[in-house]
């Protein structure tokens, strides 16, 4: 007879004693269980004790998380969170340097647990740490010359404990003094600072900026871009990552009117070329976090174009009209005629003729073409940049098209406007960066005017494709679709430079695009005759069963998930996998992301599949209903799912990517006997069904398929028949 569901069998350790095996009744108060354990070892004052998970996390067992205890768990009897907090509060104020160092190290480890953190914060522990940072460092700096490693460790553990405590979101960031901010900023601006101290200080500055608009202004007054740049010129990728994260945070929180000014400073300090040289082209491979920060910087840089993209041209603004006159002058090598040269009608007729050759929709007043937003004035900026910096190509395109028949000319003005709009859509100009994206393009870091250069390459591609398609004005939208496909396919290859991007586009001619489309069409061909449809229906259940088995096999291999915190780089990991008999989910916390599969015996927690009631996704998940900007991120919402089990308890997941999200939601639904409805299942079904259909419809009439492979022929007696081409 199986034991009651409320009884959990565990082992409990106590230093210096043999571990005890005992059954815990989950209906009993936790205090009664602790009292029983203490009495077993003849320990008094049971209120001063608590139970901890005996693994690397050392998390305390509380009434809130006690249901996470599973059969076979190993627990440890230890001092209560309050007692530990009181002891550490006293120990970190010790006059002995060694004792203080050991206490701060213990505090940094203990602060990861929210139960302990709450008790330590209640003792005004955060204030004590900030005072130690503000005033204590001067005293330690006197010893720095003779005890430099000790000083670095003291400060490092102090800042680590502070960061871990703040990570729980119990204390508001707005409570910190200017003196504390100045001190943290000083650790970043000083040369030859301990690496661990520098790393924590950069993390604190980033969190301050992101979590408080008031602190943004204070931090911005204390630290300049010029003081951050040297940290990018080192070789430590973690320091480089934190540095770019601080720059991104300052950029993101800056008022709109100051962002252009900040971008100008970044250009003056040559941030782009420093990142290109020391990060992108470094011998150290770029990790995911660095890739994310580079992506964020790329997005924020392109978002500076949003203002021009959403600005309509004022047809009455002479300065803006002069830009159109400049385009005409460069194209046709004409100077502005004096007012008395010929009649007004003659000049109007001449202007109209030239504006038609330039490809504007409105030949009389081209300014009207730029009243559409997006792309607004950004299109005109791009056209002027092309005309001035790639003058030969500009003149060739305009004159080449003006010499064609009207219906075959590629209208430069209209093309430029639509192309600018398309490029803004591709690069998502104006959208906030995604929390989980790592999609940065190295080529955009190779030029100070990368968007304009990107446009210049693409407008020449558009003109080339127009000619290859022998397009007429009626084909304009078709040409734009082909150009979009060419650009997207070239970007997928992640070219390292704009020249490499250009050469990739050369290989993606219209003829090549047609071949690719034809190949894809053949692979995805869908037969609609009745016998074929009946065959599809017959095969479908077999394919669905195959997909189901694949999903369950993937769940058995397991996946590493991350616990999202307010500081991305300090994420903690946990692993979950399905048992081979498909009856139990094994899961547990990890110190770092694993390189391969994690064995079952290292995962302490278990959840029987029979206890699972439902799978919940998206915004309905409990962990997506919590407050906080990160929780509202659209990307995170799309990757969130929860498992509801007994007594309305939840096991919450955030998948590392869309693929893993689909695998796990499909697999869990399959375990519950429900339909697998993810996009990934639909895609797999289409691919496998198409392959199976083609195999079954192969024309094998009169072809005898041997049951055994044919024998390998003997080697020839000589090789005189081989012809040497050399």
From TrEMBL:
Boundaries of every ELMO domain copy: 319-491
CDD domains named in the record: PH_ELMO1_CED-12
GO cellular component: cytoplasm; guanyl-nucleotide exchange factor complex; plasma membrane
Primary location recorded for the protein, binned into one broad class: cytoplasm
Locations listed in the record: Cytoplasm; Membrane
Keywords, ordered alphabetically: Apoptosis, Cytoplasm, Membrane, Phagocytosis, Phosphoprotein, SH3-binding
GO biological process: actin filament organization; apoptotic process; cell motility; phagocytosis
Database matches in Pfam families: ELMO_ARM, ELMO_CED12, PH_12
Domain of life (superkingdom): Eukaryota
Gene Ontology molecular function terms on file: SH3 domain binding
Function: Involved in cytoskeletal rearrangements required for phagocytosis of apoptotic cells and cell motility. Acts in association with DOCK1 and CRK. Was initially proposed to be required in complex with DOCK1 to activate Rac Rho small GTPases. May enhance the guanine nucleotide exchange factor (GEF) activity of DOCK1.
Protein's name according to its UniProt entry: Engulfment and cell motility 1
Species for this entry: Kryptolebias marmoratus (Mangrove killifish)
């Amino acid at each position: 007879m199986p034991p009651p569901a409320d009884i959990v069998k565990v082992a409990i350790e106590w230093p210096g004693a043999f571990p005890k095996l005992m059954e815990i009744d989950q209906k009993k108060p936790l205090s009664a269980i602790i009292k029983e354990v203490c009495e077993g070892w003849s320990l008094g004052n049971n209120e001063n004790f608590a139970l901890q998970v005996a693994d690397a996390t050392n998390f305390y067992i509380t009434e809130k998380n006690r249901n996470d205890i599973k059969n076979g768990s190993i627990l440890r009897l230890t001092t209560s969170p309050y007692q530990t907090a009181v002891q550490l509060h006293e120990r970190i104020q010790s006059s002995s340097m060694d004792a203080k160092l050991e206490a701060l190290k213990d505090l940094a480890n203990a602060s990861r647990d929210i139960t302990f953190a709450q008790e330590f914060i209640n003792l005004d522990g955060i204030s004590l740490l900030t005072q130690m940072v503000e005033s204590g460092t001067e005293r330690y700096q006197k010893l720095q010359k003779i005890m430099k490693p000790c000083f670095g460790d003291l400060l490092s553990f102090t800042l680590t404990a502070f960061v871990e405590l703040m990570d729980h979101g119990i204390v508001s960031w707005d409570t910190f003094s200017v003196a504390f901010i100045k001190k943290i900023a000083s650790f970043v601006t000083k040369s030859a600072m301990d690496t661990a101290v520098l790393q924590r200080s950069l993390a604190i500055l980033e969190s301050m900026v992101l979590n408080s608009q008031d602190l943004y202004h204070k931090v911005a007054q204390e630290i300049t871009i010029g003081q951050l740049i040297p940290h990018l010129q080192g070789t430590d990728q973690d320091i480089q990552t934190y540095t770019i994260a601080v720059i991104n945070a300052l950029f993101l929180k800056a008022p709109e009117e100051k962002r252009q000014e900040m971008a100008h400073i970044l250009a003056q300090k040559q941030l782009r070329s420093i990142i290109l040289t020391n990060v992108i082209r470094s011998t150290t491979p770029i990790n995911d976090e660095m890739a994310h920060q580079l992506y964020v910087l790329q997005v924020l840089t392109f978002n500076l174009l949003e203002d021009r993209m959403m600005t309509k041209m004022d047809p009455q603004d002479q300065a803006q009209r002069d830009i159109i006159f400049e385009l005409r002058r460069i194209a046709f090598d004409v100077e502005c005629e004096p007012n008395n040269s010929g009649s007004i009608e003659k000049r109007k007729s001449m202007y109209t003729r030239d504006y038609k050759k330039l490809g504007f929709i409105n030949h009389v007043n081209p300014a009207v073409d730029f009243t559409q937003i997006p792309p607004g004035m950004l299109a005109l900026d791009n056209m002027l940049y092309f005309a001035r910096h790639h003058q030969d190509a500009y003149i060739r395109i305009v004159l080449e098209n003006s010499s064609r028949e009207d219906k075959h000319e590629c209208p430069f003005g209209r093309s430029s406007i639509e192309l600018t709009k398309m490029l803004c859509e591709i690069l998502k100009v104006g959208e906030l960066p995604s929390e989980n994206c790592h999609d940065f393009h190295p080529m955009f870091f190779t030029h100070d005017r990368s968007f304009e250069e990107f446009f210049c390459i693409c407008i020449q591609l558009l003109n080339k494709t127009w000619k290859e398609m022998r397009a007429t004005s009626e084909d304009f939208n078709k040409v734009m679709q082909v150009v979009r496909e060419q650009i997207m396919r070239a970007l997928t290859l992640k070219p390292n430079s704009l020249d490499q991007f250009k050469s990739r586009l050369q290989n993606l001619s219209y003829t090549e695009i047609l071949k690719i489309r034809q190949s894809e069409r053949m692979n995805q061909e869908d037969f609609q005759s009745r016998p074929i449809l009946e065959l599809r229906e017959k095969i479908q259940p077999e394919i669905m069963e195959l997909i189901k088995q694949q999903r369950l096999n993937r769940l058995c291999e397991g996946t590493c998930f991350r616990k999202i915190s307010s500081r991305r780089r300090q994420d903690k990991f946990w692993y979950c996998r399905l048992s081979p008999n498909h009856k139990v989910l094994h899961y547990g916390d990890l110190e770092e992301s694993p390189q391969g599969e994690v064995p079952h015996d290292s995962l302490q927690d278990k959840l029987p599949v029979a206890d699972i009631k439902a799978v919940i996704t998206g915004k309905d998940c409990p962990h997506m209903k919590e407050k906080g900007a990160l929780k509202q991120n659209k990307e995170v919402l799309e990757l969130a799912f929860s498992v509801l089990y007994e007594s309305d308890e939840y096991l919450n997941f955030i998948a590392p990517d869309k693929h893993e999200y689909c695998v796990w939601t499909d697999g869990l639904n399959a375990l519950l006997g429900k339909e697998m409805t993810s996009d990934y299942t639909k895609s797999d079904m289409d691919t496998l069904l198409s392959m199976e259909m083609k195999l079954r419809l192969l024309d094998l009439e009169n072809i005898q398929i041997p049951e055994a492979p044919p024998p390998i022929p003997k080697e020839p007696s000589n090789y005189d028949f081989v012809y040497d081409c050399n």
